Amino acid sequence: MYSYALLEKNCYYLIQETEESAVSLIKVHLETEQCMYVSKYQDEPAIEWKKKGDPIFDILELVGDDKIKDWGSIYNDNQGTYNYEEDED
């Protein structure tokens, strides 16, 4: 079992918070003495505070800048697609 304290600021990670949860992409934005300010990218991005001691079942990988650039173009294209379809109705 891991915790948020192991993650570094301004880095993207693929994590699994619990054994049953889906894999999530997160980015750590800010670190205080006790907490981390984290973006979680799913269907809708969410930004939340996590205690450094909050458990993470598995840290699958630190995602490199080149992969984040590729993911960002796909993610942003999909966000526009969803918005476009909603506007048509």
Describe the structure in your own words:
This protein is an alpha+beta fold and 89 residues long. It has a domain at 2-63. The chain is built from 1 helix and 7 strands. The chain has one helix at residues 65-88; strands at residues 2-3, 12-16, 24-31, 35-41, 46-51, 55-56, 58-63. The chain has a 5-stranded antiparallel sheet with strand order 5-4-3-2-7. A hairpin with a 7-residue loop joins β2 (12-16) and β3 (24-31). It is globular, with a radius of gyration of 15 Å. The termini are far apart. Residues 82-89 have low confidence and may be disordered.
| Helix-residue proportion | 25-40%
Inertia-based shape:
globular
> N- to C-terminal separation?
46 Å
Task: Write out the strand line-up for the largest beta sheet, numbering strands in chain order.
Answer: 5-4-3-2-7
Strand content: 35-45%
Q: Which stretches of 5+ consecutive residues score pLDDT under 50?
A: 82-89
Biggest sheet, open or closed, and with what strands and sense?
Answer: 5 strands, antiparallel
Count of alpha/pi helices:
1
The average pLDDT score comes to 87
The counted number of beta strands is: 7
